[in-house]
Amino acid sequence: MSILFRDLLKKVGSGNHTGENLTRAEAATATRMMLLGEATPAQIGAFLIAHRIKRPTGEELAGMLDAFDELGPKLQPISSARPVMVFGLPYDGRTRTAPISPVTALLLSAVGQPVVMHGGDRLPTKYGLPLREIWQGLGVNWSTLSLEQAQAVFAQTGIGFVYTPQHFPLTNIIWEYRDQLGKRPPFATMELIWCPYAGDAHIIAGYVHPPTEGMFQVALGLRGVTKFTLVKGLEGSCDLPRDRTAIISLSSASPELERVFLSPHDYGFTPKNVPLGSNEELVTQIQDVLAGNSSELQQTALWNAGFYLWRSGSCADMRSGIAKAEELFKSGVVAAKLQQLIQVVNSVAEKNTDNQLLESGQEVKANS
């Protein structure tokens, strides 16, 4: 048992009258001790549920991010005229609405705006459709790549993916606790603003509950992050909704967030989100979008692409962004980006296999 961790647990788990928030340094220490297994299972489980009941502060999220920065992976800087957009989406996936973020990533990278994503497999508490499965359905298998290989793909295509089960295995133990507890701990909030990129980054994070936005602002401010976009998106993702006005907060030079309210109706879109069927159905729908075919999912793709083209500085406003996105889909540029990504991922993976076979043959020869 860790006496130090017990003291941190007592602070967050002592109830409304005597409980205390952790300092940034204490939150970093607690996170580090959980990831490294220095706290006992009983202590870790108790901490996660107590911290959820107490609710995290922005300062605590900043400390948790400090620990992730210290122990976790980072894609290294690439040459780019704009900050790399790092999309933070819920790790436990989607269950009700069709995700569009992989299409958004392909379109942005096609116009020279690099994108980094991160996530894992089907995870608690929702066990929804994760990014990895969507990408794999499109022919891009991120799960077999080492971090160095993912870096090579990122440098060549402008799309990076940090697959946490492989690239950050220290987090795997935390998922076992999430499953047993059946509730999202504050880690689930922190992950949305985690930045596994070492260069100039623009953090894009989704959220559900309004208080989360304030926590994000405090945490990012403490960590010196000046470029971010916070979206009250579909199922807590960065995908803009079509069934309601999109509420978005933008970082600005002043201490106050710049608020943007975007109504789909004002831009000619019907107020309807596309329901999520099977992954196979979604992949077919995405392929239709990439082919330039008209559909409900294409409307969602244009709505989101228009915003992110504008937000990245690639277009002057939403309307020109939407028009540019429609042109990119119809011309086949976005579909070509997917084919490039597939080829590069496969080439990098094959090169690694060839190297392993060569090393294995050399070892056998040396031992014979």
TrEMBL record:
Assigned keywords, A-Z: Amino-acid biosynthesis, Aromatic amino acid biosynthesis, Glycosyltransferase, Transferase
Gene3D superfamilies: Nucleoside phosphorylase/phosphoribosyltransferase catalytic domain, Transferase, Pyrimidine Nucleoside Phosphorylase, Chain C
Signal peptide segment: none
UniProt-listed SUPFAM superfamilies: Nucleoside phosphorylase/phosphoribosyltransferase catalytic domain, Nucleoside phosphorylase/phosphoribosyltransferase N-terminal domain
InterPro entries (alphabetical): Anthranilate_Pribosyl_Tfrase, Glycosyl_Trfase_fam3, Glycosyl_Trfase_fam3_N_dom, Glycosyl_Trfase_fam3_N_dom_sf, Nuc_phospho_transferase
Xref: Pfam families: Glycos_trans_3N, Glycos_transf_3
Single annotated GO MF: glycosyltransferase activity
Residue ranges of domain Glycosyl transferase family in the record: 97-332
Glycosyl transferase family 3 N-terminal domain location: 6-71
UniProt-listed PANTHER family: ANTHRANILATE PHOSPHORIBOSYLTRANSFERASE (PTHR43285), SLL1634 PROTEIN (PTHR43285:SF3)
Identification of the protein by name: Anthranilate phosphoribosyltransferase family protein
Organism this protein belongs to: Anabaena azotica FACHB-119
